[in-house]
């Protein structure tokens, strides 16, 4: 996940920080109270895969009630100034970086 910084250091590239707000509002999670069929299905999937998978819904192409497209919601994205990295040789890049 953080290997892109090491690649940037090895190549002397500039890193541009980017952060977005509002992605969590693009899809709705299907309600899954204790004891419901959806919860039981999720538990079975979790036992098989090792992680829980949420069931979600968005909007459809021609109707807005149910579908797999994201809901129409603004996403605010902030782009920072580039961070210029020095070019380091690969032998100087340690695991601590």
TrEMBL record:
Enzyme Commission number(s) of this protein: 2.3.1.20
GO (cellular component) term, any one: endoplasmic reticulum membrane
InterPro entries per the UniProt record, alphabetical: DAGAT
Subcellular compartments: Endoplasmic reticulum membrane
Pathway(s) annotated for this protein in UniProt: Glycerolipid metabolism; triacylglycerol biosynthesis; Lipid metabolism
One Pfam family linked to the record: DAGAT
Membrane-topology annotation of the record: Multi-pass membrane protein
MF terms in GO: diacylglycerol O-acyltransferase activity
Enzyme class: transferase
GO biological process, one term: triglyceride biosynthetic process
UniProt keyword list: Acyltransferase, Endoplasmic reticulum, Glycerol metabolism, Lipid biosynthesis, Lipid metabolism, Membrane, Transferase, Transmembrane, Transmembrane helix
Family: Belongs to the diacylglycerol acyltransferase family.
Protein name: diacylglycerol O-acyltransferase
Species whose genome carries this gene: Rotaria magnacalcarata
């Amino acid at each position: 996940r953080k290997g892109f910084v090491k690649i940037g250091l090895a190549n002397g590239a500039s890193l541009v920080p980017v952060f977005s707000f509002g992605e969590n509002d693009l899809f709705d999670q299907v309600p899954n109270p204790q004891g419901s069929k959806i919860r039981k299905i999720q538990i079975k999937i979790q036992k098989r895969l090792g992680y829980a998978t949420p069931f979600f819904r968005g909007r459809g192409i021609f109707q807005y009630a149910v579908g797999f497209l994201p809901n129409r919601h603004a996403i605010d994205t902030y782009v920072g100034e580039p961070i210029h990295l020095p070019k380091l040789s690969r032998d100087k890049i340690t695991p601590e970086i």
